[in-house]
Amino acid sequence: MLRARNKTGLVFFPAFDWAISPTHPEREERLLYTQDQVFEEGILDIEGIIEYKPDLVTKKDVQRVHFCVPDLWAVMTESHFISAGGAKTIAMAVMDKQVDCGFALVRPPGHHANRVVHGARGFCNVNIEAIMIEYIRKAYGVNRVAIVDTDCHHGDGTQDIYWHDPDTLFISIHQDGRTLYPGSGFLSEMGGPNAVGSTINIPLPPNTSEDGILHVIREAVLPILEDFKPEIIVNSAGQDNHYSDPITNMNFSAQGYAELTTLLKPDIAVLEGGYAIEGALPYVNAGIILAMAGMDYSHLKEPDYNPERIRQSPEVNRWVEKVCKKVLENWYKRRQLGEMARGDNRFIERDRKIFYDTDNIYERQHETLRVCEACGGALRIDSEAQERKHILAIHIPRNACQDCHDQGLAWYEEADADAYDKVYLQDRAADVMKEKVKPA
Amino acid sequence: MIIGLDVGGTHTDVVLLGQEGLVRQNKVSTNPADLFTTVLSGLEKITDGIDPQCIKRVVLSTTLATNRIVQQRMPDVGMIISAGPGMDPELFRTGPHYHVVSGGIDHRGREIAAVDADEVLKVADTLEQKGIRYVGVVSKFSVRNPVHELAIQEALGERFEKVFLGHRIAGALNFPRRIATTFLNASVYPIHKEFFEAVVNSLAQKGLNLPIRILKPDGGNMRFDASIDHPAQTVLSGPAASVMGTVAFAPQSDTCLAMDIGGTTTDMAVLVNGVPLLDPMGIKIGEHKTLIRSLDTISIGVGGDSVVRVVDGQIHIGPDRLGVAMAYGGPVPTPTDAMFILGVGEGGDLEKSREGIQALADELGIDVETAAQQIYDKACQTILDEAGAMVERINAKPVYTVHELWEGSRLQPRHIMVLGGPAPWFAKGLERLGDCPVEVVPRWKVANAIGAGLARTTCDVTLFADTEREIATAPEESFTKTIPSSYSKADATAMALDLLRKKAIARGANADHLELEVVEAMEFNMVRGFFTSGKNIRVMAQVKPGLIHGYDPIAEKIMGDHFV
Fold first, then answer.
1. Is residue B166 within 8 Å of residue B267, measured between CB atoms?
2. Contact yes or no for B140 and A18 at CB 8 A
3. ipTM given for this complex
4. pTM
5. To which CATH superfamily is domain A3-335 assigned?
6. Lowest mean pLDDT across A187-196, A408-417, B300-309, B528-537
7. Cα–Cα distance between B489 and B463 in angstroms, integer?
8. Which residue is catalytic, options A80, A112, A118, A215?
9. What is the rounded average pLDDT for all residues in chain B?
10. Which part of the chain is the Hydantoinase/oxoprolinase N-terminal domain (chain B) (predicted)?
11. Chain A residue closest to B291 (CA)?
12. For residues A109 and A243, what is the distance between their CA atoms, to the nearest angstrom?
């Protein structure tokens, strides 16, 4: 009888009846061959690999993370309730110690969804990892969480949600933003003034292969994780670094992904992107599952795998090594950099423009953050989407200090409901969501 | 007339059914060492004085193959495996004569590495030198494209008595299970063939030329001669017989639990609107997880003759049986003894029962009536708890579409139907401790044999169509057809149903009363770049498990003389 070394939970939700559009990369067929491969390999028969039926997330689970505009029902489809629910199911199985670790193979994905949601960005409506993480924080009292995003695209949505949170370490490894959507995720993006260093971006040059990505994990990610000491490690397991992916330019392999998983030892992995649905996903997903379960994956490779053909150039080697050095340097200097960012300010403001590529929406944000040494800081976002809604979103962080809590409540009280379509208060300290609607 | 025969662990039940209802019923002791004689004597006894011409069908449910597998008394079988990349095929080794050869097929059925005929010939030489006569051949994704299994078979030529090919076993994906199932088919083939020939010849010598069928674990049957190519499908049909025995009496528009309480075990299943639930994957026999379709049943080690012990001050029941109840001269106290003391059951030597239970009561420091009550309640409660866990497990099964998850209703059985020797005695306790009405199936002592006799012929077909490659295949049926690129899901469904109809008739179904259903029909756009290059269509259809057409009058008659 085959037995997994680590008890591993799986949620398989391929959403065979949901697509953005019939020929969109994020469509019904996307996990079909993965499921075929996993079924044919008999992976679900292995003792210690436990398949769960996904629960649905609740409205409250979503509201802990997002400001949905105009409301939750306009943003969430049935599939989103299930895919976020699948991640939550796995997280609960891990937290309840039914399994040692778990992988949610669900779609649609979520890592491009920001805190404020006017529509879909990069095939994502809501951030399924963030919804899952905030749920387990509430339900199990987890505080320090590390998210390692190994999708080829910068996890800008997750970065946005945790930008001001010093207790969430967000590390994104991705193809350099100058060469790929969403065009962000540079070394200089290190988190907001109250949380400098807790966001880490590791942009890699096109054609980085196994050597480069595994080097990053060994030389940068693992030492930082050791230092940060998270209670839980979440892997946003995007699989589009694969050499055959049609919308990226990297040279990673199924063996590489399995090795990465073995090194990273995530408690929870959640599927993100990956659109080489025939040539890569079946092998990569099977590899990740076997690696999580602590089983042999040495026989698992793509039929056309040829390590020589995709080996990275010396130039890429040098670039990768340099990036890792710089990342570590920033990490060790994070307190100093934080002090510099905060200066003597009581409040720090920033203006941003956000483009929703999937839904073709332009959003303009003006953000005000209360500078705080004790917590993530009260946050106020004035958000207006072109020809759409104009809202005011106030966020009081989970571990808010009294001053930030008072500040958030004051912002909400004094907000002029006439000036906005809606004013939101996300009071995470009290775990409530309030809204003021423009009088009719 | 119809004969149903069910070989149980303790007794073999035989019934003769006619338009007038249950004509005869017999019980013969099962001789596990000689099931052939057991079956034969059961058949002889029931047909005594009956004109064989009147007997239209005989359905046997036998555990012959299962016994051999569980006892690991099987001949040496050669396995030739072509895996390609993926899990290490060594992990699925079936025994010493297991050979991995080159070749690879991918998830769409495309060749990614060729088979090497010379390599196969060398393996064949080795197997032949070892005196192997039965061989299984399995390649990964052979149910998408069997070309490698066929090529290996061709290379083997006529050198072995029987070669089993994986893709003929089942349409579902699961390489390790396909290996195990092919291995089991090859392993039980000689014993099944011997049994088949012996039964047919012995009956012929006695002038009994009976049309024999074999019950399958999915609650359907197949013609005896068709079973020669699928010998492993004859395993573990006992629980299926019991479930089919309740089908005629189960509510047609509600969910109910069927429980066959025997001497050693209690077998349970769920019936939804009178139709038993199938296990979505396949039956497990010993250590082997297979692709053999079966009803979704569980078997727990609690029955009327289970051993009752006191362990650490607690009552323990089963899972073993050491013989009949003490009331009947058995060696240890059993739930049946407890029921006698409580006056729930009747018969046997009450003093013997009291003696046995008294010993347990002394250990527990309570009086004998209290001990008997606790044993009875514990046995009933264990059965109810296990049934609850089974329903939970079924409700927790994963689903793969938005529709299924959103629409999927939870099962909530609202009746319990019990059968088997001690069924009426257990029924009272089950009703008192549970939360739904408990009914005893009419003719509870032989309802399993009635179920075997009345079960219909079942089978299933899986069809794949790939409009980019322009082929439709149902490898299990050796069916491949070129299709136009305009081929649709409706075309595939029609094709699958047509194949199923032919298969069912060939297996012995009544052509005028086929109840076919589409279990799954999915269609996916395959996209290259941003253009649809074709469609990937999957259809699975089956004959619904159930009873043969025209059983109603028989069932009504049996119901009419309830408890006679």
1. no
2. no
3. 0.90
4. 0.90
5. Histone deacetylase domain (3.40.800.20)
6. B528-537
7. 11
8. A112
9. 89
10. 3-158
11. A42
12. 21
